[in-house]
Amino acid sequence: MKSGQRVAIPAARTASRSRNSLPNTSRALTLSVMAIAILLSSCSHHAYSPPPPAPPPSATQPGATRPAPSRPSGAPPRGQPAVPGEYVEEGVASWYGDPFNGHRTSNGEIYDMYQFTAAHRTLPFGAVLRVTNLSNGKQTEVRINDRGPFVGNRIIDLSLSAARAIDMVGPGTAQVRIEMLGGPSPTVGAFGVQVGAFLVKENADALRDRLAAQFSPVIVVPYDSPNGPYFRVRVGRVATEAAAGDLASQLRAAGQSYTFVVRLDN
Fold first, then answer.
1. Domain 191-263, CATH among 3.10.20.600, 2.60.120.10, 3.30.70.1070, 1.10.287.380
2. Cα gap 69→71, rounded to integer Å
3. pLDDT tens digits along 80-107
4. What pTM did the predictor assign?
5. Is the pLDDT score of 131 beyond 80?
6. Where along the chain do its domains lie?
7. What CATH architecture applies to the domain 88-182?
8. DSSP assignment of 40-52, as one string?
């Protein structure tokens, strides 16, 4: 080829190159359009969510004062749980089985004489006691779910199983020591004095009316016993067992020989 001579490219080859380059340009343009469409679609379906706020610091900053906790509303706080050994009592224990077995106890349970339970006049329901037979040293543990005994100087009525555990079924009674191991505080609650229990409601009402002239309150409480309904007459409502003991002394001075300090469960 000579210098300065122009070389002519065949028209067919030029057209071919233009046709080959056109698809590449269109393909790039198509891909760009698709990418933009996908991006717009993604933005339209996923709204922006701001990050959650940072948690408060766990420690109080220097110089800052921590607000006092607010007291929850509702019922007043109950007393502290019983401390083992806080309540100790000695006296005569008895036991009860039939015909009470299968009947409701004072806390609403069905009495089962084969369980380790007991009745007590002033300890709260749910109290757990260790009972020691002082004549042989044998011990058992019981849960209070009933009220009683309302006989003489007895301090506790044991279930049949508990009585068997300390060998007092045969004698019927035994000198025992009871120690509270756990449960609600024995000092928190309301107490009164039981002054009578009658099969005839009219007799209970008559005693209530006579005592109401000197003491208040005086109420009649029905009790469904295995022998039929009884009507117990109770006097007073005080905050401590000691205050109820003072009330019992006043009632005895007024001529009431039948007096038992009791916890008022309702």
1. 3.30.70.1070
2. 7
3. 577 777 899 999 999 999 999 999 999 9
4. 0.69
5. yes
6. 88-182, 191-263
7. Beta Barrel (2.40)
8. HHHHHHS---PPP
If residue 251 lies in a helix (H) or strand (E), which one and from where to where? helix 241-253
Rounded Cα distance, 215 and 251, in Å: 9
Q: Are 79 and 117 in contact (CB under 8 A)?
A: no
Q: Tell me the per-residue pLDDT of 26-69, one tens digit each, with 9 for 90 and over.
A: 454 444 444 444 433 443 333 333 333 333 333 333 343 333 33
| DSSP assignments along 93-157, one per residue | EEE-BTBTTTSB-TTSPBP-TTSSEEE-SSSPTT-EEEEEETTT--EEEEEEEE----STTEEEE
133, 167 Cβ separation under 8 angstroms? yes
Which long-range contacts does 82-86 make (Cβ < 8 Å, 24+ apart)? 82/127, 82/180, 82/181, 82/182, 82/183, 82/184, 82/185, 82/186, 84/179, 84/180, 84/181, 84/182, 85/179, 85/180, 86/180, 86/186
